[in-house]
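Thread: TonB-dependent receptor, structure

OP (GT): Posting the sequence first so everyone is looking at the same thing. Length is 919 residues per the record. Can we get the structure tokens written out before standup tomorrow? I want them in the notebook alongside the other entries.
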Amino acid sequence: MKKLLLLVFLSFPTFLFAQTKISGTITDADSKPVSGASLVIKGKLIGTTTDENGNFSLNTSAALPLTLVVTGVGYQKQEVAVSTSGESVKIGLTPQTELLNEMVVTASRVEESILESPVSIEKMDTRAIRETPSINFYDGLQNIKSVEMVTSGLTFKQINTRGFNGTGNSRFLQLVDGVDNQTPGLNFAVGNLFGSSDLDMESAELIPGSASALYGPVAFNGVLMMRTKDPFQYQGLSAQVRVGVNHINEQYADPHGLYDYALRYAKAFNNRFAFKINASYFTGLDWYATNYTDVDAGATPEQRGDNNPARNGLNIYGDDDVRTLTGVGRVSRTGYEERFLMNYNSYSTKLNGALHYRLTDNMELIYQYNYNQGRAAYTGSNRFMLNDFNFQQHRVELKGSNYFIRGYANLEDSKNSYNGKGLGQLINKTWVRDLNGNVVSEAQADDTWYARYQAAFTGNVNNVTAADHAAARAFADQGRFLPGSTEFEDQKARLIAKQGSGGAGILSQSKLYHAEGQYDFSDKIKVLDVLVGGNFRMYDMFTNGTLFDDKNNKITIKEGGAFAQASKRLLNEKLKLTASLRYDKNQNFDGRFTPRASAVYTVATNHHFRTSFQTGFRNPTPGDQYIKLDAGVITVLGGVPDNSRGMTVYQNSVTTPSLGAFQAAFMQAMAGGASPQDAVMQTKDIIQKSNVAYIKPERVQTFEIGYKGLVNNNLLIDANYYFSSYNDFILNQVVMEMQSPVLGPDGKINPAIVGDLQNGKTRLYQLYTNASDRVTSQGATLGLTYLLPGNYTVGANGTWADFNLRNANVNDIPAFNTPKYRTTVTFGNSAIAKNFGFNVAWRWQDTFEWTSTFNGMRPGTIKAYSIVDAQVSYKMSPIKSIVKFGANNVFNNQVYQAYGSPSIGAVYYVSIVFDQLMK
């Protein structure tokens, strides 16, 4: 591919090069030169930037007269007519307040005013990225209204909007320069572990809510479009050093340093060829998951705790294996704390290079390569360790002012990644001894351990106190490998290295190939503005049997779609109507149309009302369809029919909620004096046979109204309300497969399955399926930004979100995982005094329940919390640098953002940035 691009670069005719020269100077309102201002010929791609003295020079083959479009950070966009070749153009830029009309692209896939966007959209521009009170631009996104961010680690953060949140969010599309940033095996973007550094980030635009009508099935809950800096516009050498500390006043870790380094260099030649290179490296000690709350599903809340023989600590692994022993009761294995199983030394390496070549004034060819590697922990159905995970991307794009053709490939290699929770369960099978003191095989380990416990508790072991759970456990645990011991570390390394059955290691070398194009016919069709586009995508999965059943079966998934959008202005340009229609087809599901219609009415200058009807859908991800993961005590199983061929889980399993109800009723009957056999017969019919359907796409319809306006040029108001209706919502349902037939000849529950439960002749499955009933959600946001005298800016936003189950089956509750109320307040000034600036953000959210497969779809409480981020900066203009002192979570409120994930504390840091040196 690189050779092909080089051949194109060298062979393209030189007669297409510039024939007209335009030069001049750009100054501000005080007649001072403006450095780094961008000039582009209107309707073309060709352009240039000003040097440190505000001078520019541009060679072009475009015919005169022409119009220059001039932009600069902190200045109003301006158009300047040029009619004479060689003329020295003098341009004066007018300062722009932060509240004036910005331009966005993501809402309609064409450039438009943010005030006139047909749907809700937020933007974080270059200045906001530079001045964010958070430690980096990605963390700063959570200060935007509507945004939910869940932290699993220092580099692993998930963004979501409008509910149904998760620690791995495959319902939200994250793009960098138009490239889907998801890893094909995980099926979601890994926060900013892989992506762009702050130095190369130009802007981020976010659409809350479904955008499937323009972006396809992945954009079910929203789109984050990140754009990096164009090497033609942002040239020179930039460098950043950031040093920080976390783990302040924590129980299990001492204060530890964080180190973040980044370098960027870009250079353009004759406005025709440009390149950029980026390198960044981050390292630090990640947050520890140390929530040891007893979540034993078979015990009442009063019975749970340290004295529960069947205790199941949330972040303790191996103790989720439970049996009911005759004469003893329910007992669980002794587990290992997560902190001894995971590698919290996180890091992120990002290398990036791009070549840009302007074939003509309106045709640019781009090749970009990204290399990423890192380590991070995240919470899924288990706690997983992305260990030395490698992610590479190739992008080729040909674009003009009104079209693009783009192709890219995402390639992953999981390297040394492993299942942390499964690792604890597997280590528990390596050291168990029989009554003679001999280590038994892994297949016999659980049976032997429970036999030892039962013998000790019932008084059949000399020198062990009978009817004493602590003594029985100590006897059963004889020979247990202690964390940190040589034996423990040896087994840990062996099991991580072993991928697939019997090992904790995970292998994924999957690939994603994507091609797409778009053409804007607006300058060719006079009656309407028309935009068309389409894409084709193929997943090529390979896990060698560790995640998918692909050791001998190749799994590829193909899907594609096309859209058309038309818009028209009416009523003297006051009313803008837009309609779009998209069609998508996945090889495993029926094709589907997704329409969108909107209207924006301008009641006065800078005052706009909008309304829209949006539809969206989400194809099940490759994981939803084909995963077949043996995760210790549970198997995660994708929901397409051919993934469970030859299995009986869909035909012979029971619902896990009914098992919990049965266990409680059974124990109550036993306490009332019933014999075990009578108690079984009295309570068995509480158990319910499962009836799980195969998976299909989920659908949403949303009605939205909103207003965005600018009052007196210093108060920006943005408000909206939405109502969404969901059908076939994709969720997980945990069932237990029985060895005996679930139903007897009479069609009722077979009592023999109770014996299966007691003897461990069962298997838990997490199945991917759909909610059978319609559910709805609604919400509203209000954002206010006020520009105070003296360049102070205060902002406040609030979000209300509500989920209505309607008449849905309580056992099919999808995980809304969203607080009802959230609010953010920001206050800042980029020039409080000469060269000094500051920014502060306060965020609060209320208590809510988090439900996930990590805890068997049982809810866990996320308590209300507030967090303050702050920074103070000092500009050193002579050396083009900014020093920043700041903190994420200034007051070190150690909070959980997802049940089962780590608690998040403070990060205090100092950074220095040198920008566009050697320009």
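GT: Both are above now. Quick notes for whoever picks this up: The chain has a mean pLDDT of 92. The radius of gyration is 30 Å.
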